[in-house]
Write a structure and sequence with these properties.
By secondary structure, the chain is an alpha+beta fold. It has a single domain, classed as Gcn5-related N-acetyltransferase (GNAT) (Aminopeptidase). The protein contains five helices and seven strands. A seven-stranded mixed beta sheet has the order 2-3-4-5-6-1-7, with helices on both faces. A hairpin with a 2-residue loop joins β3 and β4. α1 packs across α2. The protein is globular, with a radius of gyration of 16 Å.
Length: 186
């Protein structure tokens, strides 16, 4: 596995007035909270949204680990649909001192570039404030989508910390399931 230098960016918003919303003009977009939690759904989004961005930490999780992670009162999952089709998701985690982290956020590959990222992030930030947040925060890194950092900043989130470290990664991202890359590329 090659070693890669990764820079992680930590961003925050300290009040709802900091939000610079972006709305999709589409009328076929809807947002819904996933309740009760569904490990299968979150794993689907995690593996598919993160397929190109080396989201690999949770890949070995068992069903039980997913279930324990999701079945906590401080965690909420929301999905975005377009014409009833899942398009993206975010996980919000309430933390001590009324912080809410946008723990995971992203669009399925078929919807990237369709003008939905700013809309979805606006929804995630609004739902964070609705959870009683005093502070909303997120982290992203140089492995993430090239427009991720700009989207967070465009919505009003401010950079407060930056870290660089070296990590070993597979030569290519794993894809949404084992063997998916080779199937897509053939």
């Amino acid at each position: 596995m090659p070693s890669v230098s990764i820079t992680t960016y930590y961003l925050e918003m300290l009040g709802p007035r900091g939000l610079r919303p972006k709305r999709s003009p589409r009328t076929d977009v809807a947002l819904a909270r996933v309740a009760p939690p569904m490990p299968e759904l979150n794993r689907f989004f995690y593996t598919t949204v993160g397929a190109d961005w080396w989201w690999i930490d949770r890949l070995p999780w068992s069903y039980q680990q997913w279930s324990e992670y999701l079945n906590r009162p401080d965690l909420a999952t929301w999905i975005l649909t377009v014409q009833g089709v899942p398009a993206g998701y975010f996980e919000l985690e309430r933390q001590p001192e009324r912080n809410v982290e946008i723990a995971y956020f992203g669009l399925l590959p078929a919807f990237v570039g369709a003008g939905l990222g700013g809309h979805l992030l606006t929804c995630a930030i609004e739902r964070s404030w609705a959870m009683g947040a005093r502070r909303v925060w997120v982290h992203t890194c140089t492995l993430d989508h090239p427009r991720a950092l700009a989207n967070y900043q465009a919505r009003g989130m401010r950079l407060y910390k930056e870290e660089t470290h070296v990590q070993e990664l597979p030569a290519t991202s794993p894809g949404p399931w084992p063997g998916a890359r080779s199937a897509i590329e053939s």
